[in-house]
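Re: [help] complex structure
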Amino acid sequence: MFWKLRLPLILTFCVGLVPIVTFFLTEKVPGVSFVRDKVEQYMVIIAGFALLLGVVNVTQSNIRKIEKRKPGWPFAVSLLAGLFVMGTMGILSAVRVGPFQGLLTTADGTVTPFYWMTRSFFSPLQAAMFSLLAFYVASAAFRAFRVRNVEASILMIAAFLVMLGRTPLGEYAFGWIRGGELWLPGLTDWIMAVPNTAAQRGIIIGAALGGASMSLRVILGIERSYLGAKH
Amino acid sequence: MSPETWYDPTRVGAPLVLLLLFSTVVLLMIRLSRQGRGMFIRRIAGIQAMEEAVGRATELGRKVFYLPGAGSVDDIQTIASLAVLRHVATLTARYGVDFFVPNKDPLAFAAARETVQEAYLQAGRPDLFTGEIVQYVTYDQFAYTASVTGMMVRERPAANFLVGAYHAESLLLAETGQTTGAIQIAGTAEVAQLPFFAVVCDYTLMGEELFAAGAFLSREPAMLGSIKGQDYVKAALMAFIVCGVVLEVFGVHWLHDFMTLGNGH
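Output below.
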């Protein structure tokens, strides 16, 4: 009971107070910067150990998938190959063994194998995933802007005006009237700065208070679900 | 050393007053709630729909996916997500439906595994818990997205829960889930991602609803009291904002000056 529940609650209380107290105190108070830095350092160390736990879990679960020939098992083979090739190269490059001299470039300026793998495989794959976002935005926008009710209609009109006002076409639309080229961009700026910002701030204030209330519950040990414990 | 140099004078003002006001009201409401005073919390559609989503997965004989977001356990959204995860895991254990929790952050992974294991134990079905329910995927944002969207397309889960801190991956995950026909319940306090979830998901817990979800599901008096206290502080802040606007209109700036931090915000 003590190790599984009381000690984590005591630690949570003490560590949770650190950012609150140090927010108000200056660096001149003895121990403030020491405690704050130590908490941050321990967070990194714990995350490092947890990452090791994650790697072990990925390896175990994917080996199981390959052994049982579960659907999609070839993906598991590719994942494990990527994990171990990149992982081994990264470690060897960090400790500078043999041809693996550094993470980015060697002393003579040539690209290391690890960086070559990152640049040739990892970065393009990341970019491909990110670029898919454009297509997903288009299909989500199509669904959002279908005129089904009053709210959806208002959303569609506002979106149409904002998109038009952000393009050169917005300036040309009323450009034939003196000063008219600023009408649509001005309307766009007003929509973004007034109704849009007001709605966003409402959500932000609510979320900030919700987050503060949740933090208080965690610090006081009322909220314990992150420990797997019942309230 | 003089006491004036101990504290930052630009921060000891409005932040300290608000901190004390907030803590006092929340603790008072927790106390009142524990003493048996009834606390009404409005129904939140997304929370009500969770059982329906798991029930649908049971009927279809398909999996339930729970994605706890991209944040670590130092992000309060992840802690809120773990409270919801506990509830969903209890439901999947009770109905005996297949459950899958892929993780991006290693610390959140460790906490999620503990949470799900305990939920299965307390639901009386520890036999259903296996190491394959909660899995670590990768720390990279888009590699995680590629892996999870791939699994969504191949396994076609009946219900997806996307609850926690999300960034650019939110729409990729939610839109893929939508195309597979899953019922989707999302929750985040990231304002930039909320429109995507609102458009693509069937139910969305917006901002404070995410943080209230754990308290609402637990029905614990202390938890409900804290939500009520938070609502009272919100009402006070709204009054504060209106007062500030009126005073500024009449050229009185002391409230604005009091609320301004040393860095000008």
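Residues 67 and 158 of chain A are 54 Å apart (CA to CA).
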